[in-house]
Automatic annotation (TrEMBL):
<dbReference type="Pfam" id="PF03928">
    <property type="entry name" value="HbpS-like"/>
</dbReference>
<dbReference type="InterPro" id="IPR038084">
    <property type="entry name" value="PduO/GlcC-like_sf"/>
</dbReference>
<dbReference type="InterPro" id="IPR005624">
    <property type="entry name" value="PduO/GlcC-like"/>
</dbReference>
<dbReference type="InterPro" id="IPR052517">
    <property type="entry name" value="GlcG_carb_metab_protein"/>
</dbReference>
<protein>
    <recommendedName>
        <fullName>Heme-binding protein</fullName>
    </recommendedName>
</protein>
<keyword id="KW-0732">Signal</keyword>
<feature type="signal peptide">
    <location>
        <begin position="1"/>
        <end position="21"/>
    </location>
</feature>
Amino acid sequence: MMKRIVLALVATAALASPLRAQDALVTTKTLSPEVAQDCARAALAECRKRGFQVAVAVVDRAGIAQVMLRDRFAGAHTPTTATGKAWTAASFRTSTTDLSNISQPGMMQAGLRNLPGAVIIGGGLAIDAGGAMVGAIGVSGAPGGDADEACARAGIEAIRDKLDF
């Protein structure tokens, strides 16, 4: 009887060990540099079509910059702002417009506006694929966050067929 118990414990331990090793590692997906660049170029093209000179930044899922494009007459502040919007969208996994709406002065989430590096102005969107966030895009320089966001959305739509896996 004791042999069976020991054998059962050894078998259980042997089967459980690979499960623990697998749990120690996490697999993630992120945009390739080529797809990130396609996204940024499409957003820039959409803003140009609308007559706006902007900067566009695409970050990976951790908020690290992959691509930054600045149109020739976009303001000097736009690259930093676009990157900040993309970082904020990636960090919070939502649009910067939604964050702006829930963090107005006097609201419970108003403190979000004071977080270092957070740019809570419309124009930043998370990029989702296969049920996971794979990056984010930020646009700055159009007259208003809604116009920035429309260009960002056009960038995402331009790569949508590459993201559906």
